[in-house]
Amino acid sequence: MDPRTKVGIGHFTMLGVAPPELVTIAADAGFDFVGVRAAVAGAEEEPWPMAPGSPMFRETLARLDDLGLEVGDIEIIRLTPETRPRDATPLLEIGADLGARFLNVFGDDPDLERAHDTLAELVEIAAPFGIRPLVEGTSYTGIQRIQDVATVSTGTGGGVIVDPLHLHRTGGTPQDVRELDRSLLGYYQLCDAPLETPTSLPMPASLPRNQPLPVSQPQIEARAARLLPGEGELPLVDIVSALPADLPVSAEVPNLALLEELGPAEFAKRVYRTTVRVLESAVSQAAS
């Protein structure tokens, strides 16, 4: 693995784990940074009480300092036709106090020109906080293909999040990643999956923090049944090789069944080991 590469774990991987405990678990597993879900994706989701000055916020900050971890990204803002960028100010304040570098933006406005303008306003609002918004598309939202995410982000000062699952499910390839403007990249995510979308995944009885239940197989897969890096069939080594070697990587691997089987601490250690193994394979491939 390139020694410059920082490896983190996204909060979505273990959304039911409170931020302070996530920091401790991540540090013990070997991660360099964590993501923090400090805002909800929908009205049904139960937020973590992370307002600045709250007991949970203070404990999270103390553990970050004690254990030497960083916050890579905070989440989440949905980029929709109704999005008002000023509403993100409280989340940006939390992120700035935690030292976050990026804001995860969930792309869900099919009007790419309007989405571009909304993102540009969000970037302007986020700049004084030292945070850069990055957009992620999925196969079941208004912004899907990596090329569309790039179109929305280009010229705004924001950027693109490469997620191997959503890249593959929307027809993207490692070559598409290689062709991205390097200036759009801030960090990328890592997970795995079968080549074909599963058709018989069981509906979870519930999702962490009272998230609404998925309505399709792609949503079940993305939110509850991803595979650990290297344990599926996606061309992860080629995707990693298509990105700058020193780009931070965040493992985003929500797998409710495996998490329940192993428990959060052991699950995080396994996520770290499999992530590093893929990164090392990419380095070996580049050297051969």
Short description:
This protein has 11 helices and 8 strands. It has 288 residues and is an alpha/beta fold.
Give a description of the structure:
The chain is an alpha/beta fold and 288 residues long. The chain has a single domain (7-287), classed as Divalent-metal-dependent TIM barrel enzymes (TIM Barrel, Alpha-Beta Barrel). The protein has 11 helices and 8 strands. The protein has an 8-stranded parallel barrel with strand order 1-2-3-4-5-6-7-8, surrounded by 5 helices. Helix 4 (112-126) links the parallel strand 4 (102-107) and strand 5 (132-136). Helix 1 (19-29) packs parallel to helix 2 (55-67), helix 1 crosses helix 11 and helix 4 (112-126) crosses helix 5. The chain is globular, with a radius of gyration of 17 Å. The mean pLDDT is 97.
Keywords:
alpha/beta; 8 strands; 288 residues; eight-stranded parallel β-barrel; 39% helix; globular; TIM Barrel
Structural class: alpha/beta
Quote the beta fraction.
Answer: 5-15%
**Order of SSEs:** EHEHEHEHEHEHHEHHEHH
Oligomeric state, counting identical vs distinct chains: single chain
Question: What global shape is seen?
Answer: globular
Number of strands: 8
Radius of gyration: 17 Å
Question: For the record, what CATH class applies?
Answer: Alpha Beta
Tally of separate helices: 11
CATH superfamily: Divalent-metal-dependent TIM barrel enzymes
Q: Can you give the helix content as a percent range?
A: 25-40%
What is the topological layout?
Layout: E1 7-9, H1 19-29, E2 33-37, H2 55-67, E3 70-79, H3 89-98, E4 102-107, H4 112-126, E5 132-136, H5 146-153, E6 159-162, H6 164-169, H7 174-178, E7 185-190, H8 217-224, H9 236-241, E8 249-251, H10 256-262, H11 264-287
Parallel strand pairs: 1-2, 1-8, 2-3, 3-4, 4-5, 5-6, 6-7, 7-8
Helix pairs in contact: 1-2, 1-11, 4-5, 10-11
